Structure formats: C-alpha cells, structure tokens
Amino acid sequence: MTIEQTQQQIIDEFSMFDDWMDKYNFLIEMGKDCPIIDTQYKTNNYLITGCQSRVWLHASYDGNLISFSADSDAVITKGIVNLLIRVFNGHSPEEILAADTAFLDQIGLKEHLSPTRSNGLVSMVKQMKLYAQVYHLKSTQQTKHE
Amino acid sequence: MEDRKPFEIQYVRSQFPALSQYVYNKPLVYFDNAATTQKPLVVIDRLKLWYELENSNIHRGVHYLSQQGTIAFETARKTVAAFLNAKETHEIIFTKGTTDSINLLASSLGRLLVNEGDSVLVTGMEHHSNFVPWQQLCLEKKANLLVAAITDSGEVDLEDYKSLLEKRPKIVSITHISNVLGTINPIEEMIRLAHEYNIPVVIDGAQSVAHQKIDVQALNCDFFAFSGHKLYAPMGVGVLYGKEKWLNAMPPYQFGGEMVNQVSIKETLFNDLPFKFEAGTPNVGAVLGLESAIHFIEMTGIEQIGLHEEQLLHYALEKLKEIDQIRFIGHPKKQAGVISFLIGNIHPFDAGMIIDKLGIAIRTGHHCAQPVMERYGIPGTMRASFAAYNTFEEIDIFVAAVKKAALMLS
Ligand SMILES: Cc1ncc(COP(=O)(O)O)c(C=O)c1O
Q: Does CATH place domain B45-298 in 3.40.640.10?
C-alpha cells in the first residue's frame, strides 16, 4: 500500500466514529499493535521532546525501506505514534520525505488536541522525517562512492 | 460590609460569564482554578471602562486623563494594602505576577544579602517560580540552596526545616499553600522560627490569597507575593508586599522610566518607594481590574468562600474514594481546595484527555513542581482545584468522568 492509501484507510476508519470517546477507544486499541521498541533503545536519546507523556522512537533501515518501532507510557499517545508508524512503515526514505500529513487534520487529531499535545504529534512526525532524511543522505552518499 | 449578600452559589456563578458556556456540547465544569480563575463581570467591566474612556499613561502627564488615571492607580494600591493589612501603602509593589515578584526578590534581596558560601532555604514543595530563581541566584553567587524535606503525607518536615535554619540561611522562601498537594503550611510557626535567627521570610501566596484572609502584619512575614489572575483578576498583574525597612534597603531591580528621580549623564537618583521598584509603564487596566476583584471577594466574603471550598474538598475526597485504585498524592492534615490524584497505573495524560472530552477542565502533568514529582516517583498527577463558584453537582459530574476514564483505560 502507498502512504496515501494507508492514510485514506485511516480516514475511512475514523469516519465510522462520530463520538470522540470511540475515537479514543480506537486509538487505545491501535496502541496495542504498536511494534515495540527494543529495550536497548528505550533511553533518553530516543525520547521525543514536546510530549506530555514519554514517547520513544527508533528507526532501522535495510538499505531500501525504513521500519519504525516505538513505545509510550501513555496508551493514547502510543496509539497516536502507532498510527504514524502504520503510515510510514516499510517505505523508502524518499517516500517518507515526500509524504504530506494533512490526513491528521482530516481525522480531527490535530484540531482536537491542544497546542502542547499537538506539538507532541508534530514532534513525532518531525522525528520520523528526520530519520528518513538521515537515511536518504546515507544512501545517496553511498551511491556516489560506488 | 453592609451590603454583602449571604453566600448564594447561584448568585456567585451568575457573575462569571465564562461558566455558562458549553465545551464539546457539554456544560463546562471548571476545576483548574489553581492555574487561573475565571473573571467576574465587575472585573471585565472595569477593564472595559479603562480602555474605553480612561486610558492614559499615569504619573506623567498634567492632563486630565493622566491625572485621573494616576489617582485610580494609587487608590488601587490602597485597596491592595488594606486587603493584605499592610502597614503602609508604599509597601505594595505592583508586578506582573508571583513569578515576577520572586524574581525581583531573588535579584534585589539576593544582591543585598547573599554572598559566596551563604545559603537560601526553600522547601521541597515549591512551584518552579519559587525554586528556580533562588537556585540560579545560588549558582551565580556560589551559595547553597537548602531544601527542606517533605513527608509522605505531603507536609514540610518541620524537624528538617529547623535543622536547616541552624545553618543560618540568608533568606527563607516558602509557599503558603502547595499548588500540587494542597498542603496549607504552618507559615506562622515557620516565620517565627526563622525570625529567631533574624532571617527574612518570603511567602509565596499564589495559592492562598483567594482562599483565606491574609494579614501580613499578623503573619509578620517580610515579603508576600501573589498573582492577580488566581484571584479573579486579569492576567499580567501581581503584587509584592515587602516590609518598608527591607524595600528601602534593597537595590532597584529594573531600570528605566518612572523609577528615577533625577538622571544626568553621570549618575541617577532613584525614586522613593514604591516607584523605585516599578520601572516602566505598568499594566494599569489590570491593576484596576485587581482592585475590582478584591471588591468582588469582599462582597462575597473571603471566609464564606473558604468555607464553601472546604466543603467542596471534603465532598470530592469522599466521592473519589469510591473509585477503585484511586491514589491521592499527599493527604495533609490541613488541605486547601486542591486534590492531586492518580488511578492505579493509568497515565494522567491519558485520563486527562478523556476527562477533557467530557467537558471538564482539570490539570494533568507535573504542575511546574518537578521536585515534588521526583519526591513521589511519579510522572505527574491529575489535579482538580476549586473556587468560589464551583458546586457539588459539578463534583458529581467530575467523579463520573473519572470513573469513565478509569473504565476505558484499565
Ligand atoms: C504556588 C505557586 N507559586 C507561583 C506560581 C506562579 O504564578 P504566576 O505564573 O502567576 O507568576 C504559581 C502558579 O501556578 C503557584 O501555584
């Protein structure tokens, strides 16, 4: 699935709920499927700042695609980070860098979270794109050497 | 007060337009009063009047509006002095808020009294505003910050406090009421103990001034700081009360207009109290709003407000106890209308998001008191805090919301 397709799938899933409680329940459930970060990375180095709860994020790169893992001590936050992981996981750095995140507005996540909380969301997206940026640079440098 | 009405909650509520709004299609329940209170009409109208008709810069012009503004501003100072029972009107300095008042002290009183090797004493339950300014002063002066321990129940360990006083700190600065635990500290005794060593005592009154009668002469504190916005007044104004002898001895804090008498290229003569500490154009509208807020409190009756909030506190504590795995952070013997709690291992942020969606404003997080969180080994708490206008029905709605959050999250 492309990034856009996953985003559309998530928009469809969220549109089934008209109540915010149901959306939260859905996020809590989604958090349970989160690919959990290896304990060796659960350190301050991998902590995302700007969130009221703690969120750790790690990315690995097989030379082609990026996979993310994460964890949080708050379950709703864990659902939110996994939502982003669902969107970006298994894509190339270039695809992730080019992706637009307007779907967050469409499912009402940004609008319904207060600025500081939303900063947490923004920080998560930023951190994922930063990983993509680093891996993109690495791979272009390697091709230059070849 | 001749025309004071009996404490009638619906009448009190009717004076606060913000309370009748809906959020997420639910009637707002506002329990974040320790962060800031809503504003009564008298305060809103006062601000409006100032900006509609009276606006002018004070203490400067000979023109009509400026003179009237100056009179109004100085009358407000008298009102504040009477409210705190200060001996002299010029012992009242207008600041931006508690944080600003304490920074003034850390800078000015700090410069006067603290040198290398000296110490400053605070407690482990201070808001960052009464902690970081002293900590930074101590770092700059190579002095020591002494921190009196707090007990499991959330009270200052008085034995520890006494033994730290023996180290002869130059300044003691303590909160009257903890914004996290609700603890009402025995400040009369703590002041008396510090005075045995002639140490000046600063009281952070941010959380107490709206809930009980403050008499700075009876307390005999050397300084008392508070914020208008936690007292039904506008944001951007606060007060620093200081005993005249200290304020006279202290060097100015900020320099600029208003605080000077005579300026030549070589030197400057500083103005007298209170202007020496009020550099620049003050927030006149907010000061007048603060005066109106004090009138609101006097009309409503501070004792009645305190009594009502105490009843709300006990009702809320009883109701919350019905919840499985509820954990109160701190259960001091003397508690103000502030409750910090957790439910089992549920993250306060998760519960807070759900409670918010049910139309209830509570606070989650560390409440700018990270040393307190560290003391109890927790990431944060949920905090409900009450004001004059809160009701028992609101507590029922709130407790039902906490139960719902607990159910969803466990
Ligand atoms: C005990 C205490 N001190 C100081 C402050 C700081 O007040 P302000 O932000 O109005 O300066 C607060 C506000 O939360 C407080 O609760």
A: yes
